[in-house]
Amino acid sequence: MTSEYANARLGDRQDMMRKIVVKHDRFNQAYGGIERFHRPVKDGVHDTGSLGVLIGDSRTGKTFAAKQYVKGFPQSVGAEGMIFPVVRADMPAEGGAAAILHAIAESLGLSVTSRMNNTAVFAAIKRALLRSGTELLILDESEQFAKTDRTGVLTYVKDLLRKLVDIGTLNVLCIGLQSTYDALAGDPRLVGRGLLPYTRLIPYEWKSSQDKMQFRALCNAFDEMLPFNDRSHLGSSEMAARLHHVSEGNIGRLHDIIYFAGCAALNEGSDALEMTHFAEAYESRRPYGSPFNPFVHDLAAAPLAPAPAGRLDKVNASIFGKKRSAPDVFAKH
After folding, report:
1. Which of 107, 117, 165, 275 is least enclosed, having the fewest CB within 10 Å?
2. Domains in the chain, CATH or no CATH each
3. Taking the CB of residue 207, how many other CB atoms lie within 10 A of it?
């Protein structure tokens, strides 16, 4: 099958590969979770007064799903100004409580200055949320305020989240790594505001027959969108197993290795991505000191790698002295 872009300029084909987007099942899980948290009844009204969490390993598609969800609720002009039904704010890596407030304010189109104290900025945020008819406030990269070395900031943010939810006209969703859930689930005041519904995104597991099938389908979907004359058969059992080894089932890493192999194929003028292109792309990206290259060597000889730090194989948090395990779907428990 020939891609309609196979004869485009090299720079354009490279850009196409970089921007490939596949709405896979993990995306559907994340998007559906946000949707149910926002509006638990289809064609019903938006929910209010709840704090929720969307967690997952880095680059499992959390932010992409959130951005796509925001696009489904475009801004409009109301009688008192702009209407922002769903707002997404990126949490800053530095700056403390003031920086967090300013990030939320900016997402609402507010102009705040460093001379305004935190109380004044929050008051402005509250007025804007009410005036803008905001139904869902999404705080992305929330692990930034959940870092163990920022205890003072976390204490402030817990109070901030409680005050935001208590406005009573919207829900607040925190998106981040496992540490986000762990930090919030241990506070009974936050759990008491909606029972902390959450969803978890995990990478595809090759040992799971269902995950293997879905991962191969994902590889095929990427293959269909590549700007080459011929298919690269990325979803074949042999190639998909190698791609899974490199990506560890993480869609972001899968996209990366396909993109860099595609660059090698473009440089060679190839009609498709071949094993040699992946071998070349991985050679400078394999773990330092490891001679193993899955696109050159037999996978049976692959070294056993430890689970990545922060991997969400199991999620537990202490609440009232008990353990809670995160399910795979958004559900109030």
Report:
1. 117
2. 25-202+313-325 (3.40.50.300), 204-301 (1.10.8)
3. 6
